User: What shape does this take?
Amino acid sequence: MAYEPVLLRHVGHPEVRTVAGYRERGGYRGLEQALTMEPDEVIEAVKDSGLRGRGGAGFPAGLKWSFIPKETDQPKYLVCNADESEPGTYKDRILMEEDPQQLIEGCAICCYAVSANTCYIYIRGEYVEQAEILEEAIRDAYQAGVLGDSVMGKGFKLDMYVHRGAGAYICGEETGMLESLEGKRGQPRIKPPFPAVVGAFGCPTVINNVETLCNVPHILERGADWFKQIGTDERNTGPKLYCVSGHVERPGTYEYPIGATLNQIIEGCGGMWRGRQLKAFIPGGASAPMLPAEFADTPLDFDNLAKAGSMLGSAAVVVMDDQTDLVRSVYRLAKFFNHESCGQCTPCREGTNWAELVLKKIVAGNGKPGDDELILRICRNMGGTTLCPLADAAVGPLRSLVQNFPDEVRAWLDSDGALTPARQYFSEGVTV
Amino acid sequence: MPTVTIDGREVEVEVGANLIEAAKQVGIQIPHYCYHPRLSIVGQCRMCLVKIEGPPKLQTACTTQVMKDGMVVHVDVPEVQEAQEGVMEFLLINHPLDCPICDQAGECGLQDYSFKHGQAFSRFVFEEKRTYPGRERIPLGPSVVLNMNRCIQCTRCIRFTEEISGTGELGFFQRGARTEIGVFPGKELDNPLSGCVVDVCPVGALTSSQFRFSERVWYLDKKPSICTGCDVGCNITVEHRRGAIKRYKPRFNPEVNDYWMCDYGRQTFRRYSELDRLGTAVVREGDEQRAVSWDAAIDRVHQGLAESGEGAEIAFVGSGFLTTEEAFLIARLAEAAGSPHRLTCGEDGPTRTIPNPHGGISGSETSPNRRGAELAGLVASEGGLTIDDLMRGDGAARCDFLLIADGDPGSPLHDNETVARLRQARFLVVLAWAESPLAAAANVVLPAATHPEKEGSYVNSNDRLQRFRAAFPPPAGVRPGVDILLDLLSLHDPDWKGLSTAQVFDRMAATLPAFTGRTFDTLPAHGTLVGQAGAVIGGAESNPEDAHP
Assistant: This one.
């Protein structure tokens, strides 16, 4: 059965960037539908669809919306998380480039559902072109009456702003993003209170990922039952974008019903690069623990991956063939997390740095027996002890390297200097 | 009030109290770096992780508030100890471990917790630690020096400048393992409370430019006292080695200075070493002053008083640097001599404000106890001389006998013109601790103890009566003012012979309404408001050894 793309259905039709073009191809029906309903009914519909957050944590979107207090004089906000910075992830970028009105529609429905009159789209600083596309689309939406004092003439007021980040991974963490949005240093906040109660500028705030919000119009337009039929089971529903990179013939962003297996995805990408064998893969971006090839048949959804000891995360699938040096790969990731730790919490600030040093030593051929134990010990002290999940994210690849691929590490440790890299992938002095 | 169980011990706490404070109440210390009772809670050092029954992960005690009954907390369990060891290890891997040359050594949070919660070995085998080259001795302002290599990024100093001093000079720069503390461009850490960031710094990253390298802290004798810089009356710890004061540190008193004190106050002890000390009693004969025994000096004063004869003008002048008891005794002397001329000399200075939980406290006197001296009876009365008469008029010239008891130099009593006026008194007695033009001009000089050498009480700008004890004894040949004045007074009335400061206070309390109902030894640790008998504010005297709240 051929799968008809939902989220990416307008790819290749640049005219949908305008409201008129988008409407022509069937857009804004979800918002029209929503505006005929009571806000609570919209929340119920999204709850009923089983839509879970696509940013990484997989929290049910409708439930999150329902946490916004109803009886309050404070303004409420929607902050759309477009700070897509998980290594390997480029799904939100496609959505914003190819179909910005779809995102605006999703944001508008969410704002209507939680009675928020202001929406910020926090977009990563490096997405310059995408920010311009979005701003153009928002301008057009204002002109077309989709945004502004009366959304589609129904009297609901909604303002939407694009806020560009300054290039910090940590600002993709929801409370770090709120701090940054408020003009402060991007550091995660203590939770509780959760953003639904005390969020942007101290007011109730919903924070959703771009892809999550892009799913919303379709739920409203075609119904929760239609949405629930897509996917593995009732806890893993809807379409999902998989960003495939690494050793496949045609890397890219692909849409499947949630729960596609790695084998399906590789096949869709034209197979393994040069016909090589699969050694390992990261199913959900740099934070997700690496899995060995035997999990290639596991449905890549929230629950099956959690069972396999990894996570769906941002569904950035990194495929690594049999010639990949996993230790060097993880070294690169460790370098990333060290670079991106905000520095607040001791275990993350010091642990990510130490982990990078240990791996750097190992790939320089100076590893010692026991270094694998040391890595696990650092992971143990880092994992679950910090304010935000960045340390846990950093632990993901490290621990999975030692636990799932012990031979790879031991080969470096036992090589006694013989296994020094043939060429330096990362020259010293270059900070990335 | 909800009840929480910590390591098997139940404690009732206020709603919303955090676990660190709750544990304190039952004597359980939960280690912490970034938490400070007066600063916002950031939960970032992760040293206070505890196990709470319910949540799967360890939780930070500082961010966990007790809202309702039934919370069960474990501190002394292996997983918490392991987490503490882990955090200690992380904090130490890049720490320079330069304790031998670090001022903080001996009162350092890293040292103390290494001993209690750390491990005795290192797995960090790299030759190079993370360092901040060129950032080892950065003056952040006139009184604070930063050594970034020692910093543990707890942000207490940043939060102090944001939330307490309200000046916001400090910030976090860079991120991750390269995070550093610094002043914002174009700024300097020069607010009046800047020295407090050294106190809140749990490690040796921020040190005092004045105290740096002057003493190893374990040689310091730490005695509770009161600052004499102004009439706020900050509670302090006098830290000295064999009588040489090395520094003043603020001592907790929520009714006065809370955990803080100003930079000016911290430096006020310097006068004791900068000025020449009066070492012996001196009597003038002709044009020359001659050292004499105490008995001879006291006799000479008495004789001077007796010679002034019937109807003579006899005046007694004190200052705000006297203790309340000294002022009271001088007033009694005036009474005994039948003199209406008794004055307290004081000066207005810059207004100094110290934040506290009640919105802060200000003082604008240059001395600590003008109010107390006046309440003790050293105040101009009907028909008596005024300060103006003495300082700017011919008041002194009319005096047959003038006793000036000035606890501290620096007042107008010491400029040459004023001294010349005062010298016109027929017989001039000076009770003081430092050499001065006035002392050089006196008929009798009575060398008295300095503030840290004596005990007594002060009344601050908010009418709070506070007691202090001597930090160390005066040098040989010098006596506390109370003892000297008692000797003089007992020549009139033997009933005053040999009393202690406490007994003097108790007699004062028996005669003066402002002090009624109090005794020296039972004055509450946080002081008491004068004129409000029985208004006792509770709280134990804070221990100078508790360097880190």
